[in-house]
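Crash report, auto-generated. Payload:
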Amino acid sequence: MLILSRKKDESIMIGDQIEISVVDIKGDQIKLGIKAPRNIKVYRQEVFTAIQQENQAAAKTGTQLPEIDLLSQAGDRKTVPNKTSSENTKE
Amino acid sequence: MKVNTKPYGLIDVDDRQKIHFPYGLLGFENLKNFVLLDALQQPFYWLQSMEVQEIAFVLIDPTIFRPDYSPDASSTDLEAIQLTPRSKENMLVLTIVTIPDEQREMTANLQGPLIINRDLHIGRQCITENENWKTRHKIIDELSQVRNSAC
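Recovered output after restart:
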């Protein structure tokens, strides 16, 4: 890992389009400013990791789904694509 | 087209059920081709990998238990599935369900929803920046809240 020392108001460039600057330092908290093209998404790392881990957990779900009547009173399936006909899911 | 599925074994699937995820899902970036199936148990769906039979996700329409839900998809997310804010009605939003042994504790990931272009069958997992949405929303609890507030 490349490690660089920066003071407040200094910044680093990643490539020629991404700039990360140190906006403020207070105790053990640092405020970073990030300038990047719109197609580069910036997330806090723990959010990214949480979703990865949740996907891993979800992939372990068994094939026996609960028989719970979620639908009574909860509206119809209006957002369902008509392309997924249930006939296709039968063996 | 025949697809080996985790829940139902080898089954016939219509080409129109295919969904391409150009970036895969987080943690599964190498799996890009899936089929969307109605589960035999409503209101669930299966998102089955076409590449690895053992990888399949249970999905649910989040508005069933959170009518106020919106994925807040950014313009970047929409572009990734070739939609614009104007053509958002062609967007299908589904969320991934995690079902533990105690099935009533099942949760849905509202922080990392799947958005799908219905016409082009392209999907993406986005990360919502709305802090109301977490990775583990208890479906049964939230559903009962919806019902209570409807009474």
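Post-recovery validation: The radius of gyration of chain B is 15 Å.
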